[in-house]
Amino acid sequence: MPEMTQPRILLIGTGDTKADELLFMSECIARAGGRTIMMDISVLGDPPYQATHDKHAVAAAAQTTIEAIASSGDENSAMSLMAVGAANLARALAERDAIDGVIAIGGTMGTDLALDVAQALPLGLPKLIVSTVAFSHLIPPERVAADLMMILWAGGLYGLNGTCTAVLSQACGAIVGAARSAIKPRKDRPVVAITSLGKSCLRYMVELKPQLERRGYEVVVFHTTGMGGRAMESIAAQGGFAAVLDLSLQEVANQLTGSVVNSGADRLENAGRAGIPQIVAPGAIDMVDFPAWLGVPSELSDRPFHAHNRLLASATSGSTDRQRIARAIAEKLSQANAPVAFVLPAGGIQQWDREGEALHDPDALAAFVDAMRSAIKAPVELHEIKDHINSAAFNETVLGIFDRWVAAGIVPRGRTTVAA
């Protein structure tokens, strides 16, 4: 792979209020071997430098003017309009191969805009946000692009200092290095997504992944602990998969029961919206996750409990919640614009719900299975098996549906030989 000699880095920020920081970052990018392309997202003022893409260009990309944006109502409406323009402009630059990476800087306002920009860019184009609210729960999971990098802008409220320049210089070196080193996703085989948890809980990917690879597919497994499902949804929304095997829906259950370990309200919706065929199963929907270091939430204190590690623990939901989860799953699947098959393993849906395990609750499982049978409606296919999700029968059922869909042309055939 030829080495990129001078990565072109799009640097985004409000030049009227953060000129010192942005000019410092431009110098850092140059020292790291990159070339800066400045995008100014100021609304009221002007930067003391000439931006490559000034605020008028950003406004025009939103099909308006900076004067109209400034008089739109308040700072929230103004920056929301600037976000539309910045995202459109960045996407256009990426589509014509004019940039190799993007870095943005901001507090809550700049971060809000930068999140839209990141989502507008393709997977594989390096993107980094320097933010005073990096990793904060203020940022909902559905706003986070699949391959977004963030770094906390420590000491970054007002002007340069030794603390914030240490962070800014790191960030600039990181984005130049990422742009220089990034390998874009391969397109030599159709890509199939599988959602799962660790194999101590859900084991099907151990068999399904090599079976699909032998059929000529690239298989990408997503860990459904919040951001894994978010990454899958983000890529699905861009049409990045030939098929989705969404077999672990714990994040759907978490979102519905109020857990912070979720992927946003649109979990289980983007593949169907994008016309991607889906094989779906209710892996681990009985588990409600919570941060282990906070202790068991009071509303779950009487439920069976499992501590996975010092970060993550789970308690089981009761029959009423599982029935509600079943109805929500069915409703999401009914909106799909492509074929959907739902595999219902009546024998259990994660390793720890087996008899003798900590999360065993046969009555609640039976209530869920009954609710699921009633909720799934045509054209969604319902495939009920008596076995556990961690059984050979489950894997055979999933592969049988997949192979039938390949034969029918619903899923493109894999490529068992790839050109060098």
Describe this structure in words.
It is a single chain. The radius of gyration is 24 Å and the shape is globular. It is built from 13 helices and 14 strands. It has 420 residues and is an alpha/beta fold. The mean pLDDT is 94. Strand 13 (340-345), helix 12 (362-375) and strand 14 form a beta-alpha-beta unit.
Brief synopsis:
The protein has helices at 19-31, 55-61, 66-70, 75-95, 108-120, 162-181, 204-214, 227-237, 250-256, 270-273, 319-334, 362-375, 392-407; strands spanning 8-13, 35-40, 101-106, 127-131, 148-152, 191-196, 218-223, 243-248, 278-283, 287-291, 305-307, 312-316, 340-345, 381-385.
Strand order of the largest sheet: 7-6-8-9-13-14
Low-pLDDT parts are: none
Radius of gyration using CA atoms only: 24 Å
Question: What proportion strand?
Answer: 15-25%
Q: Which structural class fits the helix and strand makeup?
A: alpha/beta
The pLDDT mean sits at 94
| Secondary-structure element order, N to C | EHEHHHEHEEHEHEHEHHEEEEHEHEH
User: What would the principal axes of the Cα set say about the shape?
Assistant: globular
Strand count: 14
